[in-house]
Amino acid sequence: MASKIALVTGASRGLGKDSALQLAKKGFDIILTYQTKKEAADEVVKEIETLGQKAFALPLDISTTAGFDQFVTEVKDVLDTQFDSAKLDALVNNAGIGINESFETTTEEILDAMTNIHFKGPYFLTQKLLPLLNDGSSIVNTSSGLARFSMPGYSAYGAMKAAIDSLSRYQALEFGARKIRVNSIAPGAIETDFGGGVVRDISDLNKHLASETALGRVGLPDDIGSVVAFLCSEDSKWINGQRVEVSGGFKL
């Protein structure tokens, strides 16, 4: 039986990388995207291959829709030539950047960037990829704990992630006729290089965040990827239109 195929955006590092590896462990072949870090993406491909699955990396700039048609053409070609398939079985909209800027100093350029990267990009990329998704596929959109709780400096980022939660419910409703499930995953504070690596590298911040988490620590990429893989698998076949916060119980 052929492996299912998942496309994971922004998977050269961090949560995207761990999601791709966890999906591979569940038997998925992977198409992963990167923006600039080709060497890092190629390393992830090698790691997936050591797990016994196929993988291929493609460049993608999620901040502009201008390249989406070309990207979809490349995905079709890769599916055909590398995976001997015509369709995907899962889409993980993970790519993004972190930004901390007070409401007072947030510029129109910053807000536009947040909109393009975290909302408009995933919105239209999913639209373009819909014909390549098998009926019964799963879509996982990346939200954030910051859509539920508020911290200074994240008004633009948090608002876009709240929009992703809402979008996911609408997609779940509209894609239901094709039995395509859509859920959003909302990580809490995670030790990665996201946002300049502040959670990982600033000890006092790390300790403060851990003190407000029921399980007593901040998250690791390994805490998130397994949940993404679960939501893409048949194990979660009756979970649909849900926001799944994976934060260890932060600010309960």
TrEMBL record:
Record keywords: Oxidoreductase
Protein name: SDR family oxidoreductase
Protein family (similarity comment): Belongs to the short-chain dehydrogenases/reductases (SDR) family.
Domain of life: Bacteria
Species of the source: Chryseobacterium luquanense
InterPro entries membership: NAD(P)-bd_dom_sf, SDR_fam
A Pfam family reported for this protein in Swiss-Prot or TrEMBL: adh_short_C2
